[in-house]
């Protein structure tokens, strides 16, 4: 069975033809909620143009989140919901009828169901929209909304319990099942262990050491409790923007590598620690959907009192979070890695999620 077929088998007997339509529906519902919020707390509905900084001041945004209203306004302008005059001055924010705002909740819930997400996602998105003012003012924590009372159920809804992640995880497991060597495995930014849980049973008897790393002690402690039955696991706090340790046959990063300040540098570091014939396996979002605008920007903002991490790769000088598929593939080549898997393929309905399994092998340096 190919990785793609394994992924489809994990999704099951589901009609995927309407996935693009429902991804779009979820995007517009969330963006409508953001537009309504900005209209209620700023003068953007009026005719006098404002720059993003003026909007942030009207809303009372704390310094570390000051970039977020401008990021939202760019998305709103791209959808024609606000007028944008050069250089980035905004006005004429669209007004919404009450019926349209009531429909936001229905749109989120119906799209959520069609896309295979569990109910926790609806609660999370609606809570995030409800608390936008508090999030921008640091009165509410994005982490507290994503992990209420330390519970991983909401994060699981976003990163595991849905059609696209079932597909990607099963495809990734099939890729790993076919690898000739998985003696030492390193997972970077392992977080909730969304893929780890599916990989570990396949690695029993094949892996001497699996190093599960993350910057947060919260995730490491959760993993110790969850994966205690696997004696070959080790847990280590690691910032992958720094030097990486050891030599590994397989390096994994799930929705984590984009957090590097320079993804090209990260890829070269990974290539430097791969054993001959070693493999890099990434699961990455390759396009920022509007549905993530109430969550991901807050999770990416600097810690209170710290400067926001500057991007030094393709995203330098922008507020982009993610790299495109092409940029990842170019980064692989520059690091001496040969792409071998890129799923789902363009044109497949699942590609509308913009999440991809990207796998590359270390090139034979004797031939380069």
From TrEMBL:
The keyword Transferase applies. GO terms for biological process: methylation. Residues 186-280 form the Methyltransferase type domain. It comes from the Bacteria. GO terms for molecular function: methyltransferase activity. InterPro entries: Methyltransf_12, Methyltransf_Superfamily, SAM-dependent_MTases_sf. The keyword Ligase does not apply. Keywords: Methyltransferase, Transferase. This is Methyltransferase family protein. It comes from Thermomonospora umbrina. The lineage of its organism: Bacteria, Bacillati, Actinomycetota, Actinomycetes, Streptosporangiales.
